[in-house]
Amino acid sequence: MRRRCRWSSFALFALVTIHATAHPAPNSVINLDFGRNCVRAELLIPTSELRYALAAEGIERSSIAADDPAIAAYLSRHVALVAPAGIRWRGAPVSRHLQALAGHEYLVAALDFTPPEGSTTRRFVFQADPVTHEVRNHYLMVIARSDYLGGLVGDQPELIGFLQYPSRELEVVRTGGSSGRGFRAAVALGIEHIATGADHLLFLLTLLLPAAMVAGDGRWRTRRGAKATLIRLLGIVSAFTVGHSVALAVAAASGWQVAARGVETLIALSVLASAVHAWRPIFPGREAVVAGAFGLCHGLAFARALSGHLPDPVDTAGAILGFNLGIECFQMLIVLASIPFAIQLASAGFGGAVRRSLAAFAAVAALGWLAERALDAPNPISTALGFVTMPTTLIIASAMLAAGVALSGLSEWRRRIQRVGGYAVLERANSSLAN
């Protein structure tokens, strides 16, 4: 399963730290989130370097407190956005807190900047020199973290540039912005996320395996009719869709994030539960309820991929809708490909063995993910599963579709052979009577 860095800029941040060989201390990152009416700047400044800079202005601090008013005033003096006409934007603090990253303590401060009347959020001059005005070999890395109108959604940052003494200005121009561009980017991100999310797809596909079977005496026994099977499949998929859509919308709109390890462990448990159920029924008739309940967990994971950095509610709503639409499009493609396979599997003579083999594979995969996520250490199973990407998923779906069609053809030929055999027996009986 594809993994992304918890902080969108962390990979680039590491490069900057390595590059500053003359000064091995950590450097600063400034994430910019572009909205329709404001631009949010999130500053990540190492507190060890910030103390030097504050001391240069006569502000002696043995430690940094996030709620220190002197720090708020310091940031307002050293971070600004200026319109092309030279008018300074109005800045307002949003939040400040301390956070440990890569073994260092950082001040994380967010500020909202509103352009003057007649100016756009798409073009301005970014002025910043916190720490760099005093620590001359310190870097400020400026990143575009989110820009819905520019098609930048999710955790895919763009580097704008670096600031180091004596430079303190960067011209920022975001051209070609439109709601359609952001919506298309969100749809593409949703498709990419579900296509590379083997655990999400494996949960749903494994849950669909016994959809054409009826449970009895603790086993999968008789075949369900085609119409009843389709209704059951639709119910399972719909419940999963409602579950993850609700969780995705609430979490992404509110910016609420759950611990990655916790939600991913629950997803691995959902795969294990569906695998056991495919082998032997443990919640027969309640597949839709289970799909909806575990769908909430999957939706929280989807929300982590979308991130919650868009400062504009309209853009946030568009990103959630597009992202979810992308997930549903790819998910339905996989489900439609699996329907012929699930129906024919129930009627094939070797269907039980195939179903149990696929359930065993899903169980092994789930146990590999559980071990990795619970212990926070990879294992051979999870490492092998990490190579499952979009082409692999499409190949699996195509194979399931082809297998379903092939099984359907074999069943039809078997019925024809049986009919022909029946006619032959009848003809021999008639011939015997005539003689």
Sketch the major β-sheet.
6 strands, mixed
Radius of gyration: 29 Å
> What is the helix/strand order?
HEEHHEEEEEEEHHEEHHHHHHH
| Overall average pLDDT | 82
Question: What class would the helix/strand composition place it in?
Answer: alpha+beta
Proportion of strand residues: 15-25%
Using the alpha-carbon principal axes, give the shape: elongated
**First-to-last CA distance:** 72 Å
Per DSSP E runs of 2 or more residues, the count of β-strands stands at: 11
Number of domains: 2
Strand order of the largest sheet: 4-5-2-1-7-8
Total of DSSP H or I helical runs spanning 4+ residues:
12
Fraction in helix: 40-55%
* Uncertain residue ranges: 1-23, 422-426
